[in-house]
Every structure is written in structure tokens, then in C-alpha cells.
Specification:
- The protein has 6 helices and 7 strands.
Length: 156
């Protein structure tokens, strides 16, 4: 794998972005939610691409890790990380770490909402300096909790 760069997502990237989101949903979130209608109905490449095309804010907030192949995506708004996913076939190669470092660059504080039952995701963020705040809320339309996690730059 050659060295990649993180760049703003473009419309030509949408199929790959959608694939990454769909694969991650089916592998990691379907086992938690068990919502076949969502994971195998709504959550498909065409629908995700359409959602991004129709919402210029989503496109503007999305970045990709690109080394000739898009291997990961990051969506953030100011100090909130909204999505950070690496294609499951390319995980554990430091791509998520690089995307996270990009999101943290130049910021004192950053936060995100992690699914409570997503232990692997929560471990990843804890390893990278995030702490759970104790604040919880329901994932919209479900009975599953999200946990707020925050990163605060250490005083030098």
C-alpha cells in the first residue's frame, strides 16, 4: 500500500464512500440493531450516493483517505466527528488513525457520539485520547444508546 493523502471528497468518490458505509453497517451495526429493512433495504450504495448528492453540506464535510484507492472516509463539522470509517478489508493499517489525526489537527477539543455497543470503536477512540463523558442519548429511532466521547488536547 503506497502512502495516501487525505483530501476533500468529490462526487466521483461517491460510489466508494457508499460502499464503505454499507459494508461497515452490515458487518458491525446490523448485528446490534438487527434491522433488515434498514441494513439491506435503505442502506445500499445507490441510496447512500443519492443522499450525498442531495445534501451539499454532507459532501462539504466529507474527506477521504486516498492512495489511488479510497480506503477510508471522515465526516466532521467543526469540532464534531460525525463519521469515521475504514473499509473493513483495509482496517488495522493505520488509516483510521490518520483520519482521526486529520480531524484533530489544530483543535483544542473534539467530540463524537459512539454507539454504546460498538466496543471496538470505543476502544479505538480511547486509545487515541478520547474519554467518555457519561452523557448518553438514544440513537434516533432506536432503543440503542450513543455515548459522548471527547478529546481534549493535553497541556504542554
Amino acid at each position: 500500500m503506497k502512502e495516501g493523502r487525505i483530501r476533500k471528497a468529490e462526487k466521483k468518490d461517491l460510489a466508494r464512500i457508499a460502499e464503505i458505509l454499507v459494508f461497515n453497517n452490515r458487518l458491525f451495526f446490523y448485528p446490534i440493531f438487527r434491522d433488515e429493512e434498514y441494513s439491506f433495504g435503505f442502506m445500499n450504495v445507490e441510496a447512500v450516493m443519492k443522499e450525498y448528492r442531495q445534501d451539499p453540506v454532507m459532501m462539504n464535510e466529507t474527506y477521504v483517505y486516498d492512495d489511488g484507492l479510497i480506503r477510508g472516509i471522515l465526516r466532521f463539522d467543526g469540532t464534531e466527528i460525525i463519521k469515521l470509517y475504514v473499509d473493513p478489508f483495509f482496517q488495522n493499517r493505520g488509516i483510521g488513525q490518520k483520519l482521526l489525526e486529520f480531524a484533530l489537527e489544530g483543535k483544542e477539543r473534539v467530540f463524537l457520539w459512539a454507539l454504546e455497543k460498538n466496543e471496538a470503536g470505543r476502544r479505538f477512540y480511547r486509545r487515541n485520547g478520547f474519554a467518555e463523558t457519561g452523557e448518553r442519548k438514544f440513537e434516533e429511532g432506536t432503543e440503542e444508546y450513543l455515548i459522548r466521547m471527547e478529546y481534549a488536547k493535553a497541556d504542554v
